[in-house]
Amino acid sequence: MAVQQPKTADVVIIGGGIVGVSTALQLAKRGIRDVVVVEREQLGAGATGKSGALIRCHYANVPEARLAYESLRVFRSWDDEVGAGSPDFDPVGFLRLVAPRDEPQLRANVAAQQAIGIETSIVTADNLRAIEPLIRTADLTVAAFEPGSGVADPNGALYGFAEAARELGVTILTETPATEIVTRGDRVTGVVTSAGPISTGTAVLAAGAWSDQLLRPLGLDFGLVPVRTQVVIFRWPAAVDHERKHRVIVDSARGSWFRPEPGAATLVGVGSAARPTNPDEVDETIDAPAIARARAAMAHRFPGFAAATMRGGWAGTYMRSPDGHPIIDQVPTVPGLWVMTGDSGTSFKTAPAIGICLAEWITDGAPKLVDLAPFRSTRFADGQLWIDDNPYTDPVDLTVLH
Q1: First-to-last CA distance in the chain?
Q2: Mind giving me the DSSP string for 324-368?
Q3: Which among 89, 195, 215, 318 has the fewest CB atoms less than 10 Å away?
Q4: Mean pLDDT of the chain
Q5: Which residues touch 290 (CB under 8 Å, ≥6 apart)?
Q6: Is a pLDDT exceeding 60 seen at residue 399?
Q7: Confidence tier at 78 by pLDDT (50, 70, 90)
Q8: How far is CA 364 from CA 25, 28, 106, 358, in A?
Q9: Mapping DSSP to helix (H, G, I), strand (E, B) and coil, where does residue 230 land?
Q10: 3-state class (DSSP) for residue 189
Q11: How many Å is the maximal CA-CA distance in the chain?
């Protein structure tokens, strides 16, 4: 039976990805159950369903590392925290590789992460070979190792959040695109969808690559750019032990990332220049040049995979802010409007904590779990773009759906 769109709601959440649905669940757990989630297609049709779903805490800044750390706790304690579905979290371990010139930055970032409780350490190239025998280490000096991090099923996590939210009374509408955020005197008064208007005083915009289509009519320009990205799947060669799993790897030295996939396969993401795209017209198939870049990156880091068979892949879109970091804020000029956008495709792993913070902000007047001040939307207008404390000199843009 089709779910009817209500005429009113306490909160309307625009976007049926993992951030939007996580926020809906957390609001319901805090007693606000008159919540409507509107999704333009199906749950996970945007960046969530195409995410590499790497679960790791390593960032070159503490605020995002905190969000990832608090989210890791949710993934590890899913039955208690969510109570429905399963993210199939697999703690295979995570390695962050950097070029030798970035060793000081890596050491500083690991120390900062250890200070907030993250289980991480510096390992030498010799120790790295013991941790992950399949990888080439000749061009490395040290790496960061998180033994308790790993991978998840993005749709499994999303559907679990959705099921738990529905059980608490949240209404989730699919194939219901939002077409307008309505304001009166600058304050949010409603959301218009393809099924008609919903009267509300609180809207949460978590629409990924479509966010700017709803922000621009409000006079809000955060410099957001929708970007196309690609992921390639390779089947392991016969010579590789198909019973084992390699670690999750983000390789800043080569601008790539790798995660093991069931069926003796590996997902490979390779950064490329961020070019604007129209999310309504994006080609979801992969390009031959992307396949070649992914194969070269994998063969370099996993020499034993040089003969791996390409077996598929996909393309999707993410939204990038001017500094590549998320915007998570109650927009000061539009009371009642919260936004989470511009995350450059890395918010799957932080979505549980973002949902908690947004729910705290809406119900209690401020986020408590993590200080979201660094994610404020006004930083661009104030000329204070986010610069990481200890950034790596990535050869290409690596912030792509992982």
Answers
A1: 35
A2: SS-EEEE-TTSTTEEEEE-BTT--TTTHHHHHHHHHHHHHHSS--
A3: 195
A4: 94
A5: 230, 232, 270, 272, 313, 315
A6: no
A7: very high
A8: 16, 14, 37, 10
A9: strand
A10: strand
A11: 67
